[in-house]
Amino acid sequence: MMKRTYHLKCEDMPECVLLCGRRKRAREIIRRVDGKVIQDEDYLLGTGRFNGRGVAICSHGIGGPSVAIVVRELAFLGGRRFIRVGTAGALHRRVQIGDVVIPVAAVRDDGSEHLAPIEFPAIASPSLLGALIERAGRTIPEDRLHIGIVHSKYDFYSEIPRLTLDEKKTRKMWENLRNLGVLCSEMECGVLFTCCALLSSQMKKGIECASILVPVGRVEEEPYASDPILQKKSETAMKTAIDVALHALTGTRSGT
Amino acid sequence: MTVRKGRRCYHIGLKKGDAGRYIILCGDPARAERVSRRFDPLILRRVNREFVTYTGMIDGVRITAMGTGIGPDNTEIVLVELKKVVPENSVVIRCGSSGGLQKHVNLGDIVVSTGAVRLEGTTGPYAEKGFPAVPDRKILSLMMGYRKRGVHFGVTATADGFYARQGRVVHPNIDDETLKVMMRLGVLNFEMETSALFILSRAFGFRSASACGVYANRVTDEFISPEDAGKTDERCIDIVIDTILRLALEGA
User: Which partner from A184, A202, A229, B139 sits 20 to 30 angstroms from B36, CA to CA?
Assistant: First the structure.
């Protein structure tokens, strides 16, 4: 039966959902799992099979508010496990463009106090996080894989401090985050993790979430690297990240 | 800063070598003493104000149990000073007590924190608003091996007050809205130290985790008997010490 929400529609929604920001990437992943496109308006949504399990692929657009719509509606349709694959700006000095970052938790600098008080921690689900780390460890060399806290922001252009209201304050913020070991900055994990905590509680069902990110630029320098060699490096890393995410999503049953 | 070579820290009264690299933090000094009864031998006991420290051996591993007194501000004092007298990457695990916020979190259960809500002012200067208070991932995943009845894994709320901050209506100006919001978000328990431990451990390079016994249930309004509280403490201490011994075995 075709089920509908305000922005999405889907028939036989699988429990496993792979999310990404861009429609183009979602289309590539749908092709990767020999799936079919179900909706191609606003968001791109498709389903396919991987590892013998059904998996949905959905674009979530840029930024928290859009993610909050998509995750809620996919959960209403039947989604239970969500992994976001996406890009980020490297923040910590040991993180290089084209590496892979797996967030344990996210700094909620993203306006998501509308979902939960700002003091509430945005954390990835331990079991899904564990599955991602286990899978990533098999294919990604140790020095290119980073596991830790990421920063989720409201304003993409805060990566370029001179474009913000208070340049000095913005630079101080980035430095403080580095001092606490924050690995990279992106725009969606804070909302994804917070929203799943809220949904789990409201729906009385475990809604699991995690993410895997590839830095494609560097905060305070260049949000997207212009060097073609670095671009190629991050494109390759993204393919690996998608593969890791698909395996982690479909490898174990929900709630285990 | 406050400690010179060979000198003792201002509040906790320790010098280098007094504490092991595995530290158990209790709010209640009596619980720290309870941990110390398992030491063989007990090597050191130091008391200054409300801060008590016991160092001793368990199965060949040097462990320190400290009583910090109640609250995130006390926790800060202990961690800032500990940093000067213990090796980098030391393990600090809280063994505490708390109030359950969900119906299924029963008296005598244990809550292991996967994260903490920062309803306190102590950590503000260290980490911006929205910064997540989380335990060390590897210690948490080790502790997740204790998936048995009566042990819960989830988010803990840390308050910098016992009464008003935790929604106990002891004055007409106070409401219990925050308490209800925590319940609606699925937060498992309320206590007064964990978020400070997590944020400051990130700042100072400790590896931390937190396990708390459930002494009260805020949904059913029940309170534990002194006898069951003691039993709960022993179970919580079992989990924490077992985690430390496994870490030591792995050389971590």
Answer: B139
Tell me the whole-structure pTM to 2 decimals: 0.96
- Interface test with chain A among B101, B137, B140, B184, by most A beta carbons within 10 Å: B137
The answer to whether the CB atoms of B155 and A201 lie below 8 A apart is no
Structure tokens given for A218: 């560097």
E strands in chain B: 22-26, 42-48, 51-58, 61-67, 91-100, 110-119, 151-159, 189-191, 207-217, 222-223
Write out pLDDT tens, residues B134-160. 999 999 999 999 888 899 999 999 999
Which has the closest alpha carbon to A4: A30, A33, A41? Answer: A41
- Residue B147, both tokens: 């998936």
Q: Tell the burial category of A232 from Cβ atoms under 10 Å away from its Cβ (0-12, 13-18, 19+).
A: exposed
pLDDT digits (tens, 9 = 90+) for B171-184: 999 999 999 999 99
CA distance linking residue B166 with residue B196, whole number of Å: 16
Q: Is the dihedral of CA B73, A178, A83, A132 positive or negative?
A: negative
The secondary structure element, H or E, covering residue A75 is: helix A64-77
pLDDT the model gives residue A255: 41
Predicted complex ipTM: 0.95
